[in-house]
Amino acid sequence: MAAVAASVFATFLGLLAITFFIGRVVPIDPVIAVVGDRAPKDVYEATRIALGLDRPLVEQFARYCLAVLSGDLGTSISTGNRVVDDLRHVFPATLEMATIGIVIGVGLGVPMGVWAAARQGSWIDQVIRVAGLLGYAVPAFWLGLVGLAVFYARLKWVGGPGRLDIAYDGLIEPVTGLLLVDSLLAGETEIFANALWHLALPCSVLGFFSLAYIARMTRSFLLDQLSQEFVVTARVKGVPEWKVVWKHAFRPILIPLVTVIGLSYAGLLEGSVMIETIFSWPGIGNYLTTALLNADMNAVLGATLVIGAVFIGINKLSDILYRVLDPRAA
Protein backbone atom coordinates (compact mmCIF):
# COMPACT_ATOMS: atom_id res chain seq x y z
CA MET A 1 0.00 0.00 0.00
CA ALA A 2 2.88 2.36 0.81
CA ALA A 3 4.38 1.69 -2.61
CA VAL A 4 1.04 2.52 -4.29
CA ALA A 5 0.77 5.77 -2.28
CA ALA A 6 4.32 6.73 -3.21
CA SER A 7 3.62 5.99 -6.86
CA VAL A 8 0.46 8.10 -6.83
CA PHE A 9 2.27 10.98 -5.12
CA ALA A 10 5.16 10.88 -7.60
CA THR A 11 2.78 10.76 -10.56
CA PHE A 12 0.72 13.65 -9.18
CA LEU A 13 3.88 15.68 -8.58
CA GLY A 14 4.83 15.10 -12.21
CA LEU A 15 1.36 16.24 -13.24
CA LEU A 16 1.78 19.39 -11.16
CA ALA A 17 5.11 20.09 -12.87
CA ILE A 18 3.63 19.60 -16.35
CA THR A 19 0.64 21.87 -15.72
CA PHE A 20 2.86 24.53 -14.12
CA PHE A 21 5.33 24.68 -17.00
CA ILE A 22 2.52 24.59 -19.57
CA GLY A 23 1.18 27.71 -17.89
CA ARG A 24 4.59 29.37 -18.30
CA VAL A 25 5.35 28.45 -21.92
CA VAL A 26 1.98 29.18 -23.54
CA PRO A 27 1.94 32.51 -25.42
CA ILE A 28 -0.55 34.06 -23.00
CA ASP A 29 0.50 36.71 -20.50
CA PRO A 30 -1.44 36.02 -17.27
CA VAL A 31 -0.99 39.63 -16.17
CA ILE A 32 -2.57 41.02 -19.35
CA ALA A 33 -5.36 38.46 -18.97
CA VAL A 34 -6.13 40.08 -15.59
CA VAL A 35 -5.58 43.80 -16.21
CA GLY A 36 -6.10 44.00 -19.98
CA ASP A 37 -3.71 45.09 -22.71
CA ARG A 38 -4.35 48.81 -22.15
CA ALA A 39 -3.46 48.92 -18.46
CA PRO A 40 -0.78 51.45 -17.35
CA LYS A 41 2.72 50.09 -16.81
CA ASP A 42 2.63 50.65 -13.04
CA VAL A 43 -0.65 48.67 -12.77
CA TYR A 44 0.88 45.90 -14.89
CA GLU A 45 3.97 45.71 -12.65
CA ALA A 46 1.93 45.80 -9.44
CA THR A 47 -0.28 42.97 -10.68
CA ARG A 48 2.77 40.98 -11.79
CA ILE A 49 4.27 41.29 -8.31
CA ALA A 50 0.93 40.44 -6.67
CA LEU A 51 0.72 37.26 -8.76
CA GLY A 52 4.26 36.31 -7.71
CA LEU A 53 5.55 36.29 -11.29
CA ASP A 54 8.60 38.33 -10.30
CA ARG A 55 9.86 35.44 -8.16
CA PRO A 56 12.36 32.79 -9.36
CA LEU A 57 10.75 29.94 -11.31
CA VAL A 58 11.57 27.36 -8.63
CA GLU A 59 9.89 29.47 -5.97
CA GLN A 60 6.87 29.97 -8.22
CA PHE A 61 6.58 26.20 -8.66
CA ALA A 62 6.86 25.59 -4.91
CA ARG A 63 4.11 28.15 -4.25
CA TYR A 64 1.98 26.59 -6.97
CA CYS A 65 2.34 23.11 -5.41
CA LEU A 66 1.48 24.40 -1.94
CA ALA A 67 -1.55 26.25 -3.27
CA VAL A 68 -2.84 23.19 -5.16
CA LEU A 69 -2.30 20.88 -2.20
CA SER A 70 -4.28 23.33 -0.04
CA GLY A 71 -7.13 23.28 -2.56
CA ASP A 72 -6.44 26.69 -4.10
CA LEU A 73 -6.48 26.65 -7.91
CA GLY A 74 -6.82 30.40 -8.25
CA THR A 75 -9.70 32.53 -9.46
CA SER A 76 -11.30 32.22 -12.87
CA ILE A 77 -11.15 35.36 -14.99
CA SER A 78 -14.18 34.23 -16.97
CA THR A 79 -16.56 33.63 -14.06
CA GLY A 80 -14.96 35.55 -11.21
CA ASN A 81 -15.34 32.45 -9.00
CA ARG A 82 -12.74 30.26 -7.39
CA VAL A 83 -11.71 27.61 -9.92
CA VAL A 84 -12.29 24.90 -7.29
CA ASP A 85 -15.91 26.03 -6.91
CA ASP A 86 -16.42 26.10 -10.68
CA LEU A 87 -14.99 22.61 -11.07
CA ARG A 88 -17.11 21.33 -8.18
CA HIS A 89 -20.14 22.63 -10.08
CA VAL A 90 -19.29 21.34 -13.59
CA PHE A 91 -17.54 18.02 -12.93
CA PRO A 92 -20.66 16.06 -11.84
CA ALA A 93 -22.24 16.72 -15.25
CA THR A 94 -19.25 15.13 -16.99
CA LEU A 95 -19.15 12.30 -14.46
CA GLU A 96 -22.83 11.50 -15.00
CA MET A 97 -22.53 11.43 -18.78
CA ALA A 98 -19.27 9.46 -18.85
CA THR A 99 -20.52 6.91 -16.30
CA ILE A 100 -23.65 6.11 -18.30
CA GLY A 101 -21.51 6.03 -21.44
CA ILE A 102 -19.14 3.45 -19.98
CA VAL A 103 -22.07 1.37 -18.70
CA ILE A 104 -23.38 1.26 -22.27
CA GLY A 105 -19.91 0.48 -23.58
CA VAL A 106 -19.30 -2.38 -21.16
CA GLY A 107 -22.85 -3.71 -21.21
CA LEU A 108 -22.83 -4.05 -25.00
CA GLY A 109 -19.14 -4.17 -25.86
CA VAL A 110 -18.16 -7.18 -23.74
CA PRO A 111 -20.99 -9.48 -24.98
CA MET A 112 -20.36 -8.32 -28.55
CA GLY A 113 -16.65 -9.09 -28.25
CA VAL A 114 -17.37 -12.51 -26.77
CA TRP A 115 -19.95 -13.26 -29.47
CA ALA A 116 -17.55 -12.20 -32.23
CA ALA A 117 -14.74 -14.37 -30.86
CA ALA A 118 -17.02 -17.39 -30.36
CA ARG A 119 -18.31 -17.02 -33.94
CA GLN A 120 -15.01 -16.10 -35.56
CA GLY A 121 -15.31 -15.67 -39.31
CA SER A 122 -19.12 -15.60 -39.32
CA TRP A 123 -21.25 -12.70 -40.53
CA ILE A 124 -21.85 -11.75 -36.89
CA ASP A 125 -18.12 -11.46 -36.37
CA GLN A 126 -17.78 -9.32 -39.50
CA VAL A 127 -20.59 -6.96 -38.45
CA ILE A 128 -19.11 -6.47 -34.98
CA ARG A 129 -15.65 -5.88 -36.43
CA VAL A 130 -17.03 -3.26 -38.84
CA ALA A 131 -18.83 -1.57 -35.93
CA GLY A 132 -15.53 -1.52 -34.05
CA LEU A 133 -13.72 0.04 -37.01
CA LEU A 134 -16.43 2.71 -37.30
CA GLY A 135 -15.87 3.58 -33.66
CA TYR A 136 -12.28 4.44 -34.53
CA ALA A 137 -12.93 6.07 -37.89
CA VAL A 138 -16.04 8.21 -37.33
CA PRO A 139 -15.30 11.65 -35.82
CA ALA A 140 -17.12 12.33 -32.57
CA PHE A 141 -18.35 15.76 -33.65
CA TRP A 142 -19.85 14.34 -36.87
CA LEU A 143 -21.68 11.54 -35.08
CA GLY A 144 -22.97 13.98 -32.46
CA LEU A 145 -24.25 16.43 -35.06
CA VAL A 146 -25.90 13.68 -37.12
CA GLY A 147 -27.49 12.30 -33.95
CA LEU A 148 -28.92 15.72 -33.09
CA ALA A 149 -30.20 16.26 -36.64
CA VAL A 150 -31.86 12.83 -36.89
CA PHE A 151 -32.97 11.76 -33.42
CA TYR A 152 -33.66 15.17 -31.89
CA ALA A 153 -34.59 17.60 -34.66
CA ARG A 154 -36.27 15.11 -37.01
CA LEU A 155 -37.64 12.22 -34.96
CA LYS A 156 -37.96 13.92 -31.53
CA TRP A 157 -36.91 10.67 -29.83
CA VAL A 158 -34.38 12.29 -27.47
CA GLY A 159 -33.83 15.58 -25.71
CA GLY A 160 -31.75 18.34 -27.26
CA PRO A 161 -28.72 20.26 -25.99
CA GLY A 162 -28.34 20.90 -22.26
CA ARG A 163 -29.09 18.77 -19.21
CA LEU A 164 -32.76 19.73 -18.83
CA ASP A 165 -35.57 21.52 -20.61
CA ILE A 166 -35.55 25.18 -19.63
CA ALA A 167 -38.89 24.77 -17.79
CA TYR A 168 -37.19 22.46 -15.25
CA ASP A 169 -33.97 24.44 -14.89
CA GLY A 170 -33.23 25.42 -11.29
CA LEU A 171 -36.08 23.43 -9.75
CA ILE A 172 -33.79 20.83 -8.18
CA GLU A 173 -31.55 21.71 -5.26
CA PRO A 174 -28.13 20.21 -6.09
CA VAL A 175 -26.97 17.68 -3.52
CA THR A 176 -24.57 15.45 -5.44
CA GLY A 177 -24.56 17.45 -8.66
CA LEU A 178 -25.79 14.37 -10.52
CA LEU A 179 -29.21 15.29 -11.88
CA LEU A 180 -30.51 11.73 -12.00
CA VAL A 181 -29.59 11.16 -8.37
CA ASP A 182 -30.72 14.58 -7.12
CA SER A 183 -34.09 14.35 -8.88
CA LEU A 184 -34.75 10.95 -7.32
CA LEU A 185 -33.72 12.22 -3.90
CA ALA A 186 -36.18 15.08 -4.33
CA GLY A 187 -38.90 12.69 -5.52
CA GLU A 188 -39.18 14.55 -8.85
CA THR A 189 -39.74 11.66 -11.26
CA GLU A 190 -40.76 14.01 -14.06
CA ILE A 191 -37.44 15.86 -13.85
CA PHE A 192 -35.63 12.50 -13.64
CA ALA A 193 -37.31 11.41 -16.89
CA ASN A 194 -36.44 14.71 -18.56
CA ALA A 195 -32.79 14.48 -17.47
CA LEU A 196 -32.62 10.90 -18.76
CA TRP A 197 -34.19 12.05 -22.05
CA HIS A 198 -31.41 14.63 -22.46
CA LEU A 199 -28.71 12.14 -21.47
CA ALA A 200 -29.81 9.52 -24.00
CA LEU A 201 -28.08 10.88 -27.09
CA PRO A 202 -24.73 12.15 -25.74
CA CYS A 203 -24.35 9.01 -23.61
CA SER A 204 -25.15 6.82 -26.61
CA VAL A 205 -22.49 8.60 -28.68
CA LEU A 206 -19.89 8.19 -25.93
CA GLY A 207 -21.07 4.63 -25.33
CA PHE A 208 -20.59 3.80 -29.02
CA PHE A 209 -16.95 4.87 -28.97
CA SER A 210 -16.19 2.96 -25.76
CA LEU A 211 -18.19 -0.02 -27.05
CA ALA A 212 -16.08 -0.16 -30.21
CA TYR A 213 -12.82 -0.23 -28.23
CA ILE A 214 -14.02 -2.67 -25.56
CA ALA A 215 -15.58 -5.04 -28.11
CA ARG A 216 -12.38 -5.15 -30.19
CA MET A 217 -10.17 -5.78 -27.15
CA THR A 218 -12.55 -8.41 -25.70
CA ARG A 219 -12.57 -10.24 -29.03
CA SER A 220 -8.77 -10.13 -29.26
CA PHE A 221 -8.25 -11.35 -25.68
CA LEU A 222 -10.80 -14.13 -26.03
CA LEU A 223 -9.48 -15.40 -29.37
CA ASP A 224 -6.09 -15.84 -27.73
CA GLN A 225 -7.65 -17.85 -24.90
CA LEU A 226 -9.79 -19.98 -27.20
CA SER A 227 -6.63 -21.25 -28.90
CA GLN A 228 -5.10 -22.43 -25.62
CA GLU A 229 -4.69 -26.13 -24.87
CA PHE A 230 -6.96 -26.12 -21.80
CA VAL A 231 -9.85 -24.85 -23.94
CA VAL A 232 -9.20 -27.50 -26.60
CA THR A 233 -9.14 -30.13 -23.85
CA ALA A 234 -12.46 -28.91 -22.44
CA ARG A 235 -14.04 -29.17 -25.87
CA VAL A 236 -12.67 -32.69 -26.38
CA LYS A 237 -14.21 -33.69 -23.06
CA GLY A 238 -17.60 -32.56 -24.35
CA VAL A 239 -18.03 -29.46 -22.21
CA PRO A 240 -20.89 -27.31 -23.63
CA GLU A 241 -19.65 -24.47 -25.84
CA TRP A 242 -21.22 -21.71 -23.70
CA LYS A 243 -19.39 -23.06 -20.67
CA VAL A 244 -16.13 -23.32 -22.60
CA VAL A 245 -16.42 -19.68 -23.65
CA TRP A 246 -17.75 -18.05 -20.48
CA LYS A 247 -16.25 -20.25 -17.76
CA HIS A 248 -12.96 -21.48 -19.16
CA ALA A 249 -11.91 -18.82 -21.67
CA PHE A 250 -13.56 -15.65 -20.36
CA ARG A 251 -12.31 -15.77 -16.77
CA PRO A 252 -8.60 -15.38 -17.65
CA ILE A 253 -9.29 -12.24 -19.72
CA LEU A 254 -11.02 -10.43 -16.85
CA ILE A 255 -7.71 -9.05 -15.63
CA PRO A 256 -6.60 -7.27 -18.82
CA LEU A 257 -10.23 -6.37 -19.53
CA VAL A 258 -10.45 -4.43 -16.25
CA THR A 259 -7.50 -2.33 -17.39
CA VAL A 260 -9.12 -1.72 -20.78
CA ILE A 261 -12.41 -0.66 -19.17
CA GLY A 262 -10.61 1.61 -16.71
CA LEU A 263 -8.65 3.35 -19.46
CA SER A 264 -11.81 3.66 -21.56
CA TYR A 265 -13.68 5.26 -18.65
CA ALA A 266 -10.84 7.69 -17.99
CA GLY A 267 -10.81 8.50 -21.69
CA LEU A 268 -14.51 9.36 -21.61
CA LEU A 269 -13.99 11.64 -18.63
CA GLU A 270 -11.10 13.49 -20.21
CA GLY A 271 -12.04 13.25 -23.87
CA SER A 272 -15.65 14.43 -23.85
CA VAL A 273 -14.73 18.02 -24.76
CA MET A 274 -16.13 17.80 -28.29
CA ILE A 275 -19.32 16.02 -27.20
CA GLU A 276 -19.96 18.55 -24.43
CA THR A 277 -19.44 21.42 -26.86
CA ILE A 278 -21.85 19.96 -29.43
CA PHE A 279 -24.54 19.19 -26.85
CA SER A 280 -24.02 22.39 -24.81
CA TRP A 281 -23.32 20.15 -21.85
CA PRO A 282 -22.23 22.17 -18.79
CA GLY A 283 -19.39 19.82 -17.89
CA ILE A 284 -15.66 20.13 -17.39
CA GLY A 285 -14.95 19.78 -21.11
CA ASN A 286 -17.16 22.73 -21.99
CA TYR A 287 -15.69 24.69 -19.09
CA LEU A 288 -12.17 23.97 -20.36
CA THR A 289 -13.05 25.03 -23.91
CA THR A 290 -14.56 28.33 -22.70
CA ALA A 291 -11.51 28.98 -20.52
CA LEU A 292 -9.16 28.40 -23.46
CA LEU A 293 -11.11 30.80 -25.67
CA ASN A 294 -10.97 33.46 -22.93
CA ALA A 295 -7.27 32.88 -22.15
CA ASP A 296 -8.32 32.00 -18.59
CA MET A 297 -5.18 30.09 -17.58
CA ASN A 298 -6.20 29.47 -13.96
CA ALA A 299 -9.32 27.67 -15.17
CA VAL A 300 -7.42 25.84 -17.93
CA LEU A 301 -4.72 24.56 -15.58
CA GLY A 302 -7.22 23.72 -12.86
CA ALA A 303 -9.40 21.70 -15.22
CA THR A 304 -6.34 19.99 -16.72
CA LEU A 305 -5.10 19.12 -13.25
CA VAL A 306 -8.45 17.64 -12.22
CA ILE A 307 -8.71 15.57 -15.40
CA GLY A 308 -5.16 14.31 -14.92
CA ALA A 309 -5.84 13.45 -11.28
CA VAL A 310 -8.96 11.51 -12.27
CA PHE A 311 -6.97 9.60 -14.87
CA ILE A 312 -4.31 8.75 -12.28
CA GLY A 313 -6.97 7.65 -9.78
CA ILE A 314 -8.78 5.38 -12.24
CA ASN A 315 -5.48 3.90 -13.41
CA LYS A 316 -4.45 3.09 -9.85
CA LEU A 317 -7.89 1.67 -9.09
CA SER A 318 -7.47 -0.62 -12.11
CA ASP A 319 -4.14 -1.76 -10.69
CA ILE A 320 -5.79 -2.55 -7.35
CA LEU A 321 -8.58 -4.53 -9.05
CA TYR A 322 -5.90 -6.31 -11.08
CA ARG A 323 -4.27 -7.48 -7.86
CA VAL A 324 -7.62 -8.50 -6.36
CA LEU A 325 -8.47 -10.62 -9.40
CA ASP A 326 -4.97 -12.07 -9.59
CA PRO A 327 -3.15 -12.11 -6.22
CA ARG A 328 -0.04 -13.38 -7.99
CA ALA A 329 0.42 -9.90 -9.47
CA ALA A 330 0.73 -8.31 -6.02
Automatic annotation (TrEMBL):
What protein name is recorded for this chain? ABC transporter permease
| InterPro entries hit by this protein | BPD_transp_1_N, MetI-like, MetI-like_sf
Q: Where are the transmembrane segments?
A: 97-118, 130-153, 195-215, 253-275, 295-314
Which PANTHER family does this UniProt record tie to the protein?
Answer: D,D-DIPEPTIDE TRANSPORT SYSTEM PERMEASE PROTEIN DDPB-RELATED (PTHR43163:SF8), DIPEPTIDE TRANSPORT SYSTEM PERMEASE PROTEIN DPPB-RELATED (PTHR43163)
Keywords assigned by UniProt, alphabetized? Cell membrane, Membrane, Transmembrane, Transmembrane helix, Transport
* ABC transmembrane type-1 domain sequence ranges: 91-318
Family statement drawn from the similarity comment of this UniProt entry = Belongs to the binding-protein-dependent transport system permease family.
Originating organism: Alsobacter ponti
What CDD domains does its record include?
A: TM_PBP2
Whether Cell cycle counts among this entry's keywords is no
Q: What is the annotated localization of this protein?
A: Cell membrane
Q: What is its main location?
A: membrane
Protein topology in the membrane: Multi-pass membrane protein
What the entry lists under Pfam families is as follows:
BPD_transp_1 (PF00528), BPD_transp_1_N (PF19300)
